[in-house]
Design goal:
Blueprint (H helix, E strand, L loop, with lengths): L13 H6 L2 H16 L10 E6 L2 E6 L6 E6 L6 H11 L9 E3 L4 E5 L7 H4 L2 H18 L19 H13 L11 H18 L9 E3 L8 E4 L6 E4 L6 E3 L3 H14 L5 H18 L4 H11 L3 H10 L7 H7 L1 H11 L4
Antiparallel strand pairs: 1-2, 2-3, 3-5, 4-5, 6-9, 7-8
Helix pairs in contact: 5-8, 5-9, 6-7, 7-13, 11-13
């Protein structure tokens, strides 16, 4: 069994308190026990709550066949369990396939899939190329096949509305009391307001070659299982709780940002361009579009990463108590700062 991860700064908030309570733990264990029994399986050891944050909890159970994982989400990301069930039907080789799903509780149970991508993986250009190609293939497989209206909570973020989304956040946060945890420094709000104008100009040039679709919005190395058991790297994506309906190309930029974060070094121009080409090559086989237009659209959508992450995180705010907001305010502030960077 893996050791439990330490609780975070939101440990005294309502959600972590709920998810570490004896009452919730017993109910969750009973649910897992029943779901496993449907497949002739059983819990064979002591479960561990591996990670509890105010946005979700992950609990691990040993079975004879291997570990299984329970995840339950904050209501702000309540759509994930149902979404994963649909994705598993459409792309069973590319995403986790849950053993059981409870849409009402935003809860799912899945088998352990081994290790995720490591820092050496992320530093390797050949592995990065494999990731971006696998991402593009998954996106093309799903294109037009996921009805996000059936998953309440998935927000639509048409690129042309990005500037207005940022202005709305700036306006709302500027009106907060000075001691409110979400109230950022005035300078950040001013820069974000200027960035909204830049977003208006940039998104106006986007074509409709790639339609709005599921934007995973969290293609992070730790959210990609890496199976090497056959000698060939096979990837399986998971963690779709941040998904939005938006321009699918934003998912690539999110992954490349995580590469820079994990390696602590910028991607060289040659490496970045090679990854762009590998990604777009898959899309060119799927879309009847001018390659030059796709390349221009890919460049334009880079500015949307911070907006998508910010808007996704804001879905949690109505369900957070004051302690949770205080403990985690740096996350949305950082996303807003990322948006503000495009103002120069």
């Amino acid at each position: 069994m893996l050791p439990a991860r330490p609780l975070g700064p939101d440990a005294r908030g309502q959600w972590v308190q709920r998810w570490t309570s004896p009452e919730w733990t017993q109910a969750a264990d009973d649910w897992v026990r029943c779901r496993l029994a449907e497949y002739g399986r059983r819990i064979s050891g002591v479960p561990v709550t591996y990670r509890a944050r105010f946005w979700s909890v992950v609990r691990c159970y040993p079975t004879v066949e291997g570990l299984v994982w329970l995840k339950e989400n904050n209501p702000g990301h309540r759509f994930e369990a149902g979404l994963v069930a649909v994705l598993a039907q459409l792309a069973p080789d590319d995403v986790i396939v849950p053993i059981a799903v409870d849409r009402e509780r935003s809860r799912m149970l899945s088998d352990d899939q081994g290790s995720t991508l490591t820092r050496p993986d992320v530093a390797d250009q050949a592995t990065r190329r494999t990731v971006v190609q696998a991402l593009a293939r998954l996106q093309c497989t799903l294109l037009g096949r996921v009805d996000t209206a059936e998953h309440p909570g998935i927000i639509e973020l048409a690129p042309i509305t990005a500037g207005d989304r940022v202005r709305a956040v700036v306006h709302e946060w500027a009106a907060l009391q000075p001691d409110h945890p979400l109230r950022p420094e005035p300078a950040l709000l001013r820069r974000a307001a200027r960035a909204a104008d830049v977003l208006d100009r940039r998104t106006a040039s986007l074509s409709n070659a790639a339609p709005l679709d599921l934007e995973i919005n969290d293609v992070y190395p730790a959210n990609i299982f890496a199976d090497r058991s056959t000698g060939v790297l096979r990837l399986r994506f998971f963690d779709f709780g941040n998904a939005v309906r938006g321009h699918p190309f934003v998912s690539l930029h999110g992954f490349l940002d995580s590469v820079v974060e994990w390696t602590g070094a910028s991607l060289s121009h040659a490496h970045r361009e090679a990854l762009y080409e590998a990604y777009l090559a898959v899309w060119r086989d799927r879309l009847d579009a001018d390659p030059y237009v796709l390349r221009q659209d890919l460049a334009t959508t880079e500015a949307l990463v911070g907006v998508h992450r910010l808007v996704s995180w804001l879905r949690l705010v109505p369900y957070a108590d004051s302690l949770e907001l205080q403990a985690r305010a740096e996350i949305p502030h950082q996303y807003l700062a990322t948006v503000a960077e495009i103002a120069g």
